[in-house]
Design a protein that fits this description.
Blueprint (H helix, E strand, L loop, with lengths): L9 E4 L6 H8 L10 E4 L3 H15 L2 H12 L1
Parallel strand pairs: 1-2
């Protein structure tokens, strides 16, 4: 985003970030001044499933993912 301001009160994404790390960095720009800030992410159903897949791939190894999937299904 290239924004270096302390008074950002909202961040709006209308498409998927490249990675979860990018998303966290971008939303972290809001509220630096200590005031209430809001972040919005608009997703279509396919985008939601792609983001979920990226998140699980980044955070879990295969065995942990299988355990998580099993616990959600049961």
């Amino acid at each position: 985003m290239g924004i270096d301001k302390a008074d950002i009160q909202s961040v709006i994404h209308y498409d998927l970030p490249k990675s979860i790390e990018n998303y966290v960095q971008e939303i972290g720009r809001a509220g630096r001044d200590g005031k209430l800030a809001r972040c919005h992410l608009f997703l279509s159903d396919p985008d939601f499933y792609e983001l979920r897949s990226k998140t699980l791939a980044d955070l879990l190894d295969t065995q942990s993912g299988l355990q998580l999937t099993h616990s959600v299904i049961c």
